[in-house]
Design a protein that fits this description.
The chain has about 575 residues and is of the alpha+beta class. The chain has 22 helices and 14 strands. The protein folds into 4 domains: about 180 residues; about 100 residues, Taq DNA Polymerase, Chain T, domain 4; about 140 residues, Alpha-Beta Plaits (2-Layer Sandwich); about 140 residues, Orthogonal Bundle (DNA polymerase, domain 1), CATH 1.10.150. It is about 50% helix and about 10% strand. A hairpin with a 2-residue loop joins strand 7 and strand 8. It binds a DNA duplex (12 and 16 nucleotides) through helix 10, helix 11, helix 12, strand 10 and helix 17.
DNA sequence: TACTGGTGCGCG
DNA sequence: AAAGCGCGCACCAGTA
């Protein structure tokens, strides 16, 4: 069948799915009308996709993790896609969608992606192998039906433009997540090992506890006069502390630090070393770093706010202590950039609070808040602003909030309204239309039970607490979620700019980054408000320019001409360490 | 043996 | 034991 080659206008969308045992591509025009189908032989799939990609196709698939890793491994980059699984989740819950009944009924799309964080090579989703591990619909007609539902939901929504933008950003994020894993974080194993040895001593050859950890544990045991104590059991440790006269209610670091007792110093040191050893020690290196790359699995929208989660290797918890091990390949550099005070800036822009924007523009936002006269010091400004976004009610933070409300009434009204809506059981939404999940059945029951004439004091206390808990969640949801949208827009724009930078020649290649990224700047790490780009030395300035331009572009896309800049702390360096 | 919940700590 | 949001992971203890 040659319906695709016969057509004259370029395809608007190409849906990739299955029909019976065969892979099939369904070509749609801009209105979503089918213009043709083509069956693709298994061995020709990659070449077919590459050919249509260069003609400007936009791909529609059930789940980016099913298709894209294999394409990347074979050297094919994709510019745009529509991830049906991720978009389904957004539209199903969005308050902007007028009638989500059909989407809610399509429960086959309510699935998590199948990912194996330990897999070295991305597994090819084999359309020829039958249903196999597929947990999402793969049949082309099922995909077409879902795509139709989604298009109808957007078109009939209260905010088609914003939702369109959100779906595009979400899908681009899915591409970025796959690309981050394919390229990997350049990781210098020697630096990491040296750091472990310096802290923990040489790893015993036959296994066993590292010497510095063992010595520190012995110091703790002798300070407590308990030679057989197991330090890794919280209940046992707590009892031993009490026996030794240390009046703590927990074994957490901050509480121990307030005590004056000889056990405190070695115990805190033990906790620090133990954490390093168990979370990011030699075992972690062996399991997660191969060929000089750490390849975490990112889960776009893994958090209800739209933030990413990760699985395997603790990708989003790499301790700052290990940042020196994030090191560019020889002949390459890192562009390390993070956004200064992303969330308060997002709050200022989405609330159109010009006073807060004035405080933020061209400078450290917290210094600007001090300059506004609302608070006296930068530390106060920070704690007050975080308290406003997290819902603090007591302590320094709670005490400073009224002053923030006077100075920045619009911004504070936005988060206060979100909190009230949440406490009342309502749903809140981000700038682009991602909505918070509704309260659980148990939550509603607790609220109605408290309203009952027979309600006990305990019923009422619990209902109030749950209501306030939910209010803090929705208060933060609007800010955290919109910040995630800004970050998605930043990365989506950046990946296009980086792809447009001329590749370097073969002599400068970094093959561990895979065929798509071996010769050009690429994203290597992402964490909520910061990114790392790995770039050939001779392209580092271009890459840094791209990072800055993408941030400006994301700001314009989300907030138009609202007068606020999103400042980047950006440096070009060998390592991701602050002092590197 | 395979769970689940609690605790603690890493990240933003 | 955080006051105040969102996560993942290691470890232990209790249970099925």
């Amino acid at each position: 069948m040659s319906a695709v080659t016969a057509q004259t206008e370029p395809a608007a969308w190409i849906v990739l799915g299955r029909e019976g045992d065969a892979a099939v591509a369904v070509v749609l025009d801009a209105l979503g009308a089918e213009r043709g189908r083509e069956w693709i032989a298994a061995g020709e799939r990659t070449a077919w996709i590459a050919r249509h990609e260069s003609a400007g196709a936009r791909w529609v698939w059930a789940d980016t993790t099913l298709w894209y890793p294999a394409l990347l491994a074979e050297g094919v980059r994709v510019a745009r896609c529509h991830d049906l699984r991720l978009c389904h989740a957004v539209l199903r819950d969005s308050a902007a969608v007028t009638d989500a009944a059909q989407l809610r009924a399509a429960t086959a799309w309510d699935r998590s992606p199948l990912v194996d964080p330990r897999a070295d090579i991305p597994t090819l989703f084999d359309l020829d192998a039958g249903p196999g591990p597929a947990v999402l619909p793969t049949d082309a007609d099922a995909l077409l039906a879902e795509f139709g539902r989604q298009r109808a939901a957007v078109a009939g929504s209260a905010a088609p433009g914003a939702l369109q933008l959100l779906l595009a950003a979400e899908s681009a994020g899915a591409l970025v997540a796959a690309e981050l894993r394919a390229a990997g974080v350049p990781w210098d194993v020697a630096v990491h090992r040296d750091l472990l040895t310096a802290e923990l001593g040489d790893l015993p050859v036959g296994g066993g506890t590292p010497p510095r950890l063992a010595e520190t544990a012995d110091q703790v045991r002798s300070a407590l006069g308990d030679p057989g104590l197991s330090l890794d059991s919280q209940p046992k440790l707590l009892r031993a502390l009490h026996r030794a006269g240390v009046a703590v209610e927990s074994t957490s670091r901050w509480e121990l630090a307030e005590q004056r007792h000889p056990v405190v110093a070695p115990l805190l040191e033990y906790k620090r070393l133990s954490r390093l050893y168990t979370a990011n020690g030699w075992a972690w290196l062996d399991e997660w770093v191969r060929d000089g790359r750490f390849r975490p699995v990112y889960l776009p929208a893994g958090v209800v706010t739209g933030r990413w989660a990760s699985t395997g290797g603790g990708a989003l918890q790499v301790p700052r202590q290990l940042r020196p091990a994030v090191r560019a390949d020889p002949g390459w550099l890192l562009v390390v950039a993070d956004v200064a005070q992303l969330e308060p800036r997002v709050l200022a822009a989405m609330a159109r609070d010009t006073a807060l924007a004035d405080a933020a523009r061209g400078r450290d936002l917290y210094e600007g808040v001090v300059a506004s006269g609302a608070v006296a010091t930068r530390a106060e400004a920070k704690i007050a602003m975080l308290g406003a976004m997290y819902g603090a009610t007591t302590g320094d933070s709670g005490r400073l909030l009224p002053r923030l409300r006077r100075t920045f009434p619009r911004a504070m009204a936005l988060v206060d309204d979100a909190a009230r809506t949440g406490e009342d059981g309502g749903v809140v939404s981000t700038l682009l239309g991602r909505s918070s999940p509704p309260p659980s059945e148990a939550w509603h029951e607790a609220q109605s039970r408290a309203g009952d004439p027979e309600a006990t004091e305990a019923d009422e206390v619990r209902a109030r607490r749950w209501a306030r808990d939910r209010g803090r969640f929705t208060r933060n949801f609007v800010v955290q979620g919109t910040a995630a949208e800004w970050a998605l827009a930043w990365m989506a724009d950046l990946r296009g700019r980086l792809a447009a930078i001329a590749p370097v020649d073969e002599a400068s290649a970094a093959p561990a980054s895979g065929p798509v990224f071996a010769r050009r700047p690429h994203l290597a790490f992402y964490l909520h408000d910061e990114i790392v780009v790995h770039t050939p030395v001779e392209r580092a300035d271009d890459a840094a320019d791209a990072v800055r331009a993408a941030a400006a572009s994301a700001t314009r896309l989300l907030f138009g001409d609202f007068p606020l800049d999103f400042r980047l702390d950006l440096r070009i360096a060998r390592t991701a360490d602050k002092d590197g």
